[in-house]
Amino acid sequence: MQVILPKWGVSMQDAVLIRWLKDVGATVVKGEPLAEFETDKVEVELEAPASGILTRVFAAEDDTIDVGAVIAEIRRA
Question: Tell me, what DSSP letter sits at residue 48?
Answer without folding.
Answer: P
